[in-house]
Design the sequence.
């Protein structure tokens, strides 16, 4: 079942899930568990499931979760990413993926902290962010017509230095990364840079609570 969200992603050329899978596929094995953080309609996990991984996911939206179920995903929970702890035991997942979510969060510290707690030591975390240079704005306003909303939406971009600081603080070892382009309209006339990162968890059972990583 292709949802309206899926159709919009296809029309605008959203390749985040393919890029994330491409970075991670050589390092994962069939039968391993993958936690999709903010699973949405399941776009970020479809390829991992086809590769034989056992996908678990959570999202705040019951509508999105129902779309996931219609695609055959079953290990789903409704939960707000802003609320910690996430509903998974420490070290209970082999890997984690997050695509199409970080652009809604100014501070990614809580997600990195919880991901480091949930995935096993040596597990992988592959994720996508809106990319920016150090001298570019952290927050941008997306126009009504491109946000598919009744009002302007604020989106957040995260620089390479921000991501490096988060990985260092929460015990992740960077492995690979790849830059690509995201379009904000069906005509593909308005674009923004994005970047996918692959990191290995070296935090053991998870770090203590730290203050947020400041925005440069």
Sequence:
């Amino acid at each position: 079942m292709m949802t309206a969200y899926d159709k919009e992603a296809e029309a605008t050329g959203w390749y985040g899930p393919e890029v994330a899978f491409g970075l991670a596929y050589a390092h994962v094995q069939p039968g391993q568990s993958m936690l999709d953080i903010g699973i949405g309609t399941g776009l970020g996990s479809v390829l991992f499931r086809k590769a034989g991984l056992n996908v678990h996911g959570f999202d705040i939206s019951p509508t999105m979760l129902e779309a996931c179920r219609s695609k055959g995903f079953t290990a789903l929970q409704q939960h707000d990413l802003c609320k910690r702890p996430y509903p998974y035991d420490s070290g209970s997942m082999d890997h984690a993926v997050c695509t199409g979510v970080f652009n809604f969060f100014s501070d990614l510290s809580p997600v990195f902290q919880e991901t480091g707690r949930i995935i096993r030591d040596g597990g992988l975390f592959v994720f996508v962010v809106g990319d920016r240079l150090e001298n570019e704005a952290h927050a941008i306003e997306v126009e009504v017509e491109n946000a598919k909303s009744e009002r302007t939406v604020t989106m957040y971009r995260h620089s390479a230095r921000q991501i490096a600081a988060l990985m260092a603080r929460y015990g992740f070892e960077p492995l690979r990364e790849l830059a690509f382009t995201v379009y904000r309209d069906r005509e593909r006339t308005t674009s923004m840079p994005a970047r996918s990162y692959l990191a290995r968890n070296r935090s053991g059972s998870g770090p203590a609570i730290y203050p947020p990583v400041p925005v440069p």
The domain at 4-201 is CATH 3.40.50.150 (Rossmann fold). The first strand starts at residue 33 and ends at 37. DSSP finds seven helices and nine strands in the chain. The mean pLDDT is 89.
